[in-house]
Design goal:
The protein is built from eleven helices and 18 strands. The chain is α+β, with helices and mostly antiparallel strands.
Amino acid sequence: MLSITSQYLARYRRLTDDRSDILLPVTGAQRRFQLVRSLDPSGRPDVVPMFFAFPHGTVDPERLRAAASRLAARHTALRSRPAVIRGTPVLRVADPDVVVTRPDLVPGESPADALRRALDSWDAQGPPLRLFLVHDAERAEDILAVALDHAVCDGRSLARIVDELGAAYSEEPAASHAAPGETAAELAAYQDAVLRQLAAEERADTPEAAAYWADRLSALHAHAPAPRPARVPEGARPSGAAQARLPAHDGGVSFPGLLDACRSAARELYGPGSGRAVPLGYPWGGRPPGAEPVVGCFLNTLVFPADTDTDTDTDTGTDTGTGRGPGPEATADAWWDDLDRADVPFDAVVAAVRATGSGWTGGLDGLLTVDDDSRRPPLVLAGVEGREVHVDGRPVRGPFAVSVTQGAEIRLRMVWDRAVLDDETAHRAFDALTHALRPSDHTLQ
């Protein structure tokens, strides 16, 4: 029987045999985002915004538009629209179409409110890269939001986008059009990278790997508790947020240590001893060997079954006897085994688990992302460095998400869906997360 990746490639080739427009295949990571969007009742895509505050008057909107247009013309993914044609997910290559939108504040609205409103009205059929600029009169600042459809970018792309947007801004606006040869070369490099990635996914998607993931995720339940809108406090934003800064402890914390800390948070959210394994997703991977470092979406989403029992180690099937559940060492052993099958695309993993009769449909109760602040250049426009800020309160896709930035210190952020989790419970979970990380002296792997 053909693997999911093999079936997808066969459908893609049949689809493009007799077409004159440019349709590109999508990676397994992109298929996941398109699947999530198709299952959303509103068709809402996953959007990745970055927010930067500049002194008022620093940003020239026309110069910014020209810089972003050049960036989109240069990178195939930033001028392509995700689409599903005859049941086949693809990217449709189009001309760059970037505008700088300047939302007006309605009476009683803050700059953050205006940005939330602009992002909430995201048209899924529009361009994948969009810019929003709002004036904050109280702070004498302008807040710039650089927002992207997640189906065309991953974490490794964001740093390059920020760096190149600043470089393009320093060029003359008249030079905002990329040379045809430059655009064609990048298109070829992008298509080559995607085909290499699909070849790696095709090799990884074996019956043995499917059996591994089916067994590994057998304890997953059918996603989070049903949303209860009545629990959202009147007048509150759709999501809550908490953050903390911790000492780096000799360079950071290991990834298994972070997974184990998220397990502690899940235990607070869902209760110990429930026999529940919480599906926690995290991005992992990179560009395939031999591929150019193109902008795009290549990081696969792996699933970690975070058990909520206090004494049973679902990674090894043994009783820990600690009252706390498995620790980083046991988590690490299972995690390394997971990484040996990290190229199996997400939809193939879900299919393997469902074939066992599981009710899990691929929904994630939690998401963990990890960043290294040395790899995140600031956005510099005309020699002025923007201060990265957060705009909280936006809708979140799952019950909770944790982001970790490692550097001279560890910066933790957790957001949660107030329609699923009340603030008091979420704050207890965040406290458990930070407590689990404070004594850590592991190095980030």
